[in-house]
Amino acid sequence: MKTPRSLDQTLEQTPTRSRHISPDANTYEGLQSDNDLIIIKTTPAANPFILIIEDEVIGIDMLKLMLKKYTKSHFIIAKDGASALACYRKYLLQLSGVFMDIMLPDINGFDLIKKFKTISATKPIIACTAYNDSETTHRLLEHGFFGYLGKPYSDADLFAKCNLLLLTQKTQS
What we know:
Rossmann fold, 6-stranded mixed beta sheet
């Protein structure tokens, strides 16, 4: 049996391209895929996961930073639709919700949410978009998004969405 290494030791010895930290233990394993999937464990495994689907590093960093203020969830980061779909399938039972950029490199959010809904229609998915017009808002809700955050979003907006996610999670449990 291998002796577990600390997270810091593991990350120092691992290429930054693909990392995976197991949700059910304090173990580390390298991904065998070529995508930019990163899972960051921030709290004990009893807390739910939030899937962040965003292709821009600054968007990921801002969302994680702001979400850490309001939730003790784990964060799963996917930078494209294919990774997002794989994560959604793999962590479905642990997900409390999804924050999704609408414009991804390989698929748009409207098509991706259709794929998510065929897997499970119960997870709240919040769109993150720079398109803040009423037509886009109507289209998002029509496609089954739980809500949306207009970029740039404020702490107050994100706080409100986190409260809705947590409330939804509690009522589904």
